[in-house]
Amino acid sequence: MLTTIIPKLPMRDKAATKAFYIDRLGFTEIADYGDYLLVRKDHIDIHFFMFKALDPAQNYGQVYIRMNDMDAFYQELLDNNITIHPNGPLAIKPWGQQEFALLDPDNNLLTFGEPI
What residues does the VOC domain cover (predicted)? Predict the structure, then answer.
């Protein structure tokens, strides 16, 4: 029986990844194993592996995160000057989700969705 999925995303610079996820998005650090970083917010864990040669323009890492209370979280991001993806502003989608997206420092796409 499957119980949980934990995405593993590439990072070029651990300090920049920590600054974005911990300082800007409010995640906490679970563990730091040198070239491997684990963060958590609420019930969401994300793991990062070092990939110094990553070209962000060629990175297609993506995560879809379901959530509650999206309007408050979205406003918090705006209040903290987090850049929302230009093609991913807060919108109601035909598949019954309210969604928005942003990019991390390595161009990993984070899409947040909440059922409407």
Answer: 1-115
Q: What is the pLDDT of residues 20-65, one digit of tens each?
A: 999 999 999 999 999 999 999 999 999 999 999 999 999 999 999 9
Own/partner pairs for 50-56, CB < 8 Å, 24+ apart?
50/10, 50/11, 50/12, 50/14, 51/10, 51/11, 51/12, 52/12, 54/10, 54/11, 54/12, 54/106, 56/12, 56/105, 56/106, 56/107
Q: Enumerate the β-bridge partners of residue 91.
A: 99
pLDDT tens-digit readout, 61-95? 999 999 999 999 999 999 999 999 999 999 999 99
Beta-carbon neighbour count of residue 67 at 10 Å? 16
- Extents of the domains making up the chain: 8-52+59-115
Q: Compute the CA torsion angle 76, 6, 46, 115 (nearest 10 deg).
A: -10
Q: Which CATH architecture has domain 8-52+59-115?
A: Roll (3.10)
